[in-house]
Write a structure and sequence with these properties.
189 residues; alpha+beta
Length: 189
């Protein structure tokens, strides 16, 4: 409930309540770790409250970025965050997309991997914590097997002055050409 800054005891400071919850979420060290995908992450990304300094803010909003892992999905994440925030904090899911993982032994996958990176079909799969459109598209397309492939270096993702070498771009273009050239051609109408 809002109040005037000269009588803050007449209000309930939503900013202070949510800031305390944000500190609990940020400081939590018990997020699950997947043997294949690494740790789940929860980041307090934005925080907004108040309209002017002489008013007790009656609303506050923070937005979290949550990256789930196998065994710790969206429902488990929401429950854990809710426990950390407390019953007085209301949660709303804004974007809720599943992770993408394909068994490298799935039918046709070893051949695709070899075309993209010769010698890679026997290597252990790699997983990344970044978001790709594959999460949206796989669901819309009925859940096909997915390979996320490109010329970038995952260590460069979202850093200041992100770069990609021209050599990597050329190598990726050649790999995609090999993949497309090996695709069976349709005949007829």
């Amino acid at each position: 409930m809002s109040a005037h800054g000269s009588r803050p005891e007449l209000g309930r400071n939503a900013l202070a309540a949510l800031a305390a919850a944000a500190v609990r979420v940020h400081g939590h060290g018990g997020w699950p770790v997947s043997a294949t995908h690494g740790p789940a992450t929860v980041n307090v990304g934005t925080f907004h409250s108040g309209v002017q300094p002489n008013l007790v803010p009656d609303r506050a909003e923070m937005r979290l970025d949550v990256r789930t892992v196998p065994g710790f999905g969206a429902d488990e994440a929401v429950a854990a965050i809710s426990d950390l925030c407390g019953a007085e904090i209301e949660l709303e899911r804004l974007v809720d997309l599943p992770g993408v993982a394909t068994d490298p032994a799935a039918p046709g996958m070893p051949e695709v991997l070899e075309l993209l990176a010769p010698g890679s079909s026997g290597a252990a799969p790699e997983y990344a914590t970044y978001f790709t459109d594959a999460s949206v598209l796989a669901g819309l397309l009925g859940g096909p097997d997915v390979v996320v492939y490109g010329p970038g270096d995952p260590e460069q993702a979202h850093v200041t002055d992100e770069t990609c070498s021209v050599a990597r771009i050329g190598a990726a273009a050649e790999a995609l050409y090999r993949l497309l050239a090996a695709r069976p051609q349709r005949t007829g109408n």
